[in-house]
């Protein structure tokens, strides 16, 4: 009898918002899981990746590790590529050798962000930023090396209790500023990490059962909104005056890396795996709000 049971799941980038929620969910369900953050496993080190998978021998690997500093990627493209492009290649090779399923997290930034309708899973990509280019490279590595066992899961506009994000930033700013400027010309789908974690768990289970075809899936909460409208809803849920949020433009708040004007993703492919798309973003935000508020640690009443 081996000295330890074979873990069925391994999560990289396990200290991030999504990695934390996924690990917690799997543990709650009694699923054996090994959680590795970047201090334990550097996915840019191919030998370390191979050694980790050989040691833990997972049936499913979920790669949540990523370079997510979109603006910094413009100045340090090689470092961003090492994590977002080469890292997934290392993991895919190790999964190929082991016979493991790989769920690779990706992003709306692989698209140009100029569409007029939701991006489908099979739409041509065309990243307009270094970050998007590096994430697309990671996608391609997984799809090329693991045509039957590689799953690319694109998500966007993530928020959760396990890290800094737009919603918790708005919650802090509500307590600190009389008014807040937020762009109103970027459209997307606010997405709760807990909902994505649940979908990753379901997809990995279906992959092992052979009921979910490999390929690309879009995991964002349904519906669409703007950052401005999301900020107003955050203020409303706090009991604050939404009119304290003021609209502005992307041009007025220019960043080193351009942001997609349109990041709405289509969810049609889930039905091929026997699953419905994720619920609406507003319902998810309402349920998530108590945990987000607790994470921020706000004790003061909202400003009037």
UniProtKB/TrEMBL annotation:
Domain RmlD-like substrate binding: 10-289
EC numbers on record: 1.1.1.133
Record-linked NCBIfam families: rmlD
Family in the record: Belongs to the dTDP-4-dehydrorhamnose reductase family.
Gene Ontology molecular function: any one: dTDP-4-dehydrorhamnose reductase activity
UniProt superkingdom: Bacteria
SUPFAM superfamilies: NAD(P)-binding Rossmann-fold domains
Function according to Swiss-Prot or TrEMBL: Catalyzes the reduction of dTDP-6-deoxy-L-lyxo-4-hexulose to yield dTDP-L-rhamnose.
Matches recorded under Pfam families: RmlD_sub_bind
Lineage: Bacteria, Bacillati, Actinomycetota, Actinomycetes, Kitasatosporales
InterPro entries found in the cross-reference section: dTDP_dehydrorham_reduct, NAD(P)-bd_dom_sf, RmlD-like-bd
Pathway: Carbohydrate biosynthesis; dTDP-L-rhamnose biosynthesis
Gene3D superfamilies (alphabetical): NAD(P)-binding Rossmann-like Domain, UDP-galactose 4-epimerase, domain 1
Keywords, in A-Z order: NADP, Oxidoreductase
Protein name, per record: dTDP-4-dehydrorhamnose reductase
